[in-house]
Write a structure and sequence with these properties.
Helix 4 crosses helix 6 and helix 6 (about 190-215) crosses helix 7. It is built from eight helices and twelve strands. The chain has two domains: about 1-80, ATPase, nucleotide binding domain (Nucleotidyltransferase, domain 5), CATH 3.30.420.40; about 95-155 and about 190-255, Nucleotidyltransferase, domain 5 (2-Layer Sandwich). Helix 7 (about 235-245) links the parallel strand 11 (about 220-225) and strand 12 (about 250). The N and C termini lie close together (about 10 Å). The protein has helices spanning about 35-45, 80-95, 130-140, 145-155, 165, 190-215, 235-245, 260-265, and strands spanning about 1-5, 10-20, 20-30, 55-60, 75-80, 100-105, 110-115, 120-125, 160, 180, 220-225, 250. By secondary structure, it is α/β, with parallel strands linked by helices. Strands 3-2-1-4-5 form a five-stranded mixed β-sheet. Strands 8-7-6-11-12 form a five-stranded mixed β-sheet. Strands 9-10 form a two-stranded antiparallel ribbon.
Length: about 270
Amino acid sequence: MIIGIDIGSTTTKAVAVENGEVIRTVKTKAYDAITSATGALGKIIVESNLSMSSIEKIIITGAGAINIKNDLFGIPTKKIDEINAIGIGGMFLSKKESVIIANIGTGTSIIEATKEKITHLGGTGVGGGTIAGLSRVLLNATDFEHILEMATRGDISKVDLLIEDISDSGISFLSGKSTASNFGKMLDTAERDDMAIGIINLVFQVIGVISVFAAKSRDATSVMVTGNGSKNLIGRAILEDISRLYNIRFEFPQDAEYATAIGAALSES
């Protein structure tokens, strides 16, 4: 059995892989990389009723992997580059020989993965960290579930400048309800709920558009979304709106948030 651990800036994910199949996924939160990695490993061992001797090796990746200098609990521990881990995990989840991946974490990476090569196409600093930071300043809120709850009640037309605000008709393929400028209106009557949906709309529109451009540059018709952002139902709806505009399909596979940890585990399986 191989354990893959993705040590992120706030959340660490671990998976157990045996015979090329994912048999367990867990996640923990800690700001210290060693605490987070060992906690995730311990959790997966206890919850899966595993013995230490059944683990052949541990493969770690993510921003915090650099802080792990030695083997964990005497088990051979290796590192893999995060981009390669995302690509391998994305290929596994997509069941395709070629896939464009938008991995949404604190920021967002766009990757092309094929059987021959994994290529980092680029990305953006806009991601979950952007939602957290802007929400802290604008909403005085830090709990992500609370932010999402506020966003479900928000009115985007009080925050964003829409095309219908500046034109009597749509522009090109964009309707009057399309965004002309994120946070370009900001009415005095805008409430925290309205700003919450504005923040999420800004983040996922940026991610969606750069994903579309990446896919079109590679003649792809779909983008697979992985990372923590893949679970954001409001974000998904925004990406689906972009999909209809640009005819690029966004896919959200099961276990998408664990893609990087899965790729780490599978990198030597």
